[in-house]
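Translate sequence into structure tokens.
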Amino acid sequence: MNFLEGFSKITRTDTFVNSGVGLEQKLDPSKLDFAVLGDSFQDFFRQGARISPTLLSMPKGCLQQGPHCHPGGEFSYVVEGEYFDGDMEGGVINTYPAGSVVFYSQGSTHRPLSKEGATILYIPFDGILFGKDPEDLARKMVKVGTAEEAVEYALQWMVTDSGKRQELRKTILDS
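Result follows.
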């Protein structure tokens, strides 16, 4: 499987990728396999006023964390342990072991969880938005000017009931 085939298996649309957008790619030493994914830093990140490099220690059994949004994107490096981006029921979407480099593009949402614990160095490029529930998070995303497609995508994975999701979409995006 080449890089683009592997990359396309990530939960995504053609223009917005959610939950673990820049996974590490193990390359065959006999060839260089890569794809240019954007023309500049701004294709993935929006530099804001709140850039704060942070060393996070996720404890063992960190499985209750809610989802959050990266308005300007985030760069992460897993120093020790392992974490995963989980769905709202705690199912694994993508796993990031020690040594993984992960980036989340601007407007992306995810729910980081860890069974064994992890130490992560991360740099959010314009803060992090937390909500008390998916509706609250989506409202905050709209308030800060997150792209409508990113909000819709967040609602898609955070609210699995299609009727409730459509209702929220109308009240949040169409108002």
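Note: Strands lie at 54-58, 68-70, 74-86, 92-97, 101-104, 108-110, 112-113, 118-124, 129-130.
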